[in-house]
Amino acid sequence: MTKVAFAPDVFTWPAEEPQLIGSRCSVCQAVTFPRKPSCPRCGNPDMAERLLPRRGTLVAWTIQGFLPKAPYAGGETEETFRPYGVGLVQLGDEVRVETRLTEADPEKLRFGMELELVVVPFRTDADGTEVVIHAFAPTES
Amino acid sequence: MHDVAIVGVGIHPFGRFGPKSAIEMGAQAVRAACADAGISWSDVQFAFGGSNEVDNPDAVISLLGLTGIPFMDVYNGCATAGTALELTADAIRYGKYELGVAVGMDKHLPGAFTADPEYYSAPSWYGEAGQFLTTKFFGIKINRYMHDHGISHATLAKVVNKSLRNGVLNPNAFRRKPLDEATILGARMLNYPLTQYMFCSPDEGAAAVVLCRADIAHRYTSNPIYLRATALRTRRYGAYEVHSSWAAVEEDVAPTVYASRAAYEAAGIGPQDVDVIQLQDTDAGAEIIHMAENGFCADGEQEKLLAEGATEIGGRLPVNTDGGLIANGEPIGASGLRQIHELVRQLRGQAGDRQVPGNPRVGYAQLYGAPGTAAVSILTT
Ligand SMILES: [Zn+2]
Q1: Tell me: the pLDDT tens digits for B225-271?
Q2: Is A33 in Cβ contact with B140 (below 8 Å)?
Q3: Residue B288 · residue B147 · CB < 8 Å
Q4: Which fold would CATH assign to domain B4-110+199-380?
Q5: How far is B189 from chain A (nearest CA, A)?
Q6: How far apart are CA B149 and CA B305, in angstroms?
Q7: What is the average pLDDT across B307-332?
Q8: Gap between the Cα atoms of B98 and B348, Å rounded
Q9: Rounded Cα–Cα distance for residues B197 and A54 (Å)
Q10: A52 neighbourhood in chain B, CB within 8 Å
Q11: What confidence category does residue B114 fall into, taking pLDDT thresholds of 50, 70 and 90?
């Protein structure tokens, strides 16, 4: 069964070791996620695609405790919804990305902890297609 | 450049009002502001109207009188009312007009705001992924702030407890029932560490102010309040803001800090001079963070200040004396003019049961919202 990415151009897929797809400014080297048509620091419209580091550290986080309204596309109902973590994760010294976390227990999240990009189930469509999304998971210590 | 005075304020209560339209609420607020200034609508030379839900706030003129004046509609997120105020003041400062009205009105459905992420320069998948939520941003920001600066969960509850008690004293507020700290802390966790009662709600309401050139203010009132400064700022590279899918590694401070510094400088006033404070408390954490971002304390000092009751009406730093957004809710277009209404009442000594003691002379108002916009206003007697 093929697993389909929830949106194109967010992470490399299919891939053994998926990476987030960002961009880097050819003038000031600012890195963005996702890819941007022009540089948010200097305005330069020449941005090159950049695959981002797969590992990072947790800068800040919350737990999404309620089912978001549309355009949320996770497919849950009020009954099936499970809270998920959302964090700001610093990838090397390049960029910080706001992303889902695989961990949703405040007791298990620590500022500065090491995380790694994974691709996880998001929803299953009516035709049986498995849709996947990127998230960051704590690495074994 | 001319100085600007506030000679009239008016408010339509905040809350939920069934079929009553935002336009009707806006007209009611303008009528109240004109009555407060002792003028009639036909004396008004121009107006700026702010709203999120109403495409054309200038429709209020059909209820107030079709006098043909220029009426400009503005929308600038949660800083909409601050923007209407600044533009009205600027038109007087630069000498184009002598007297005008700033009005804000809104009527939102219950529940969190939603929209297309692309309108906020966020990727379209950002909403599909479940990240296009202002509440999530506020949870992330205060969680990190609490970790960095030693703020406790109990202090978040103290903010809400205080705002609701102030709301009890404010007949125009939406939420007028006090809650104890244990109930606030024990409520459903929406975005850790923020519980259900720690967020404001979108609701309905309107507010208006009459501004004029300071040298003619005595025609309308014996106690004009002077608008010493207004400042608007957007986020800079390095600030992590609402609806950001990413941030730079090098951190910069939030736009509020820049707006605040600019307003203090323009007014020639420092935070130590301020007697009454209105801060954007979209959530309890935002009030805590904004105390420091606006220069009223050092990062982390809030823990002690709130324990001492410093932000109470009778405290050293009275914050959100009318209950703020937590007790009033947020009709976006009106929210910042509600702040001005409260400051003017306080500086005139007309705030009744919630009057700050000691004849306050300087008032300060701050707005902040998506996608990273801040507005600050400073008023004095
Ligand atoms: Zn650049």
Answers
A1: 999 999 999 999 999 988 899 999 999 999 999 999 999 999 999 99
A2: no
A3: no
A4: Peroxisomal Thiolase; Chain A, domain 1 (3.40.47)
A5: 6
A6: 13
A7: 98
A8: 22
A9: 37
A10: none
A11: low
List of chain B residues whose C-beta atoms are within 8 Å of the C-beta of residue A6: 125, 128-129
Is the CB of B140 less than 8 angstroms away from the CB of A87? yes
Question: B373 C-alpha vs ligand 1 centroid, how far in Å?
Answer: 22
Tokens of A17: 């070791």
Looking up tokens 């801060």 gives B279
Question: Tokens in use for B190?
Answer: 């929406």
Q: What is the pLDDT along chain A (141 residues), one digit of tens a residue?
A: 689 999 999 999 999 999 999 999 999 999 999 999 999 999 999 999 999 999 999 999 999 999 999 899 999 999 999 999 999 999 999 999 999 999 999 999 999 999 999 999 999 999 999 999 999 999 975
Residue A70 in tokens: 């549309």
- Which residues on A lie below 8 Å from B116 (Cβ)? 71
Task: Please give, rounded to a whole number of angstroms, the shortest distance from the CA of B148 to a CA of chain A.
Answer: 10
Domain coordinates of chain B in residue numbers?
4-110+199-380
Cis check for the bond before A14: say yes or no (omega within 30 of 0).
Answer: yes
Q: At what angle do helices B284-293 and B134-149 cross, to 10 degrees?
A: 60
Residue B357's SS3 state is: coil
Task: Calculate ∠ Cα B264-B266-B268, nearest 5°.
Answer: 65
First to last CA, chain A: 33
- A22/B246 Cβ within 8 A: yes
- HSE value, Cβ hemisphere, 13 Å, CA-based, for B360: 33
Q: What is the DSSP letter of B79?
A: T
Structure tokens at B183: 């109930």
Residues of A in contact with B192 (CB under 8 A): 62-63, 65, 106
Beta bridge partners of B208: B10, B103
- Name the phi and psi angles at B264, rounded to 5: -60, -45
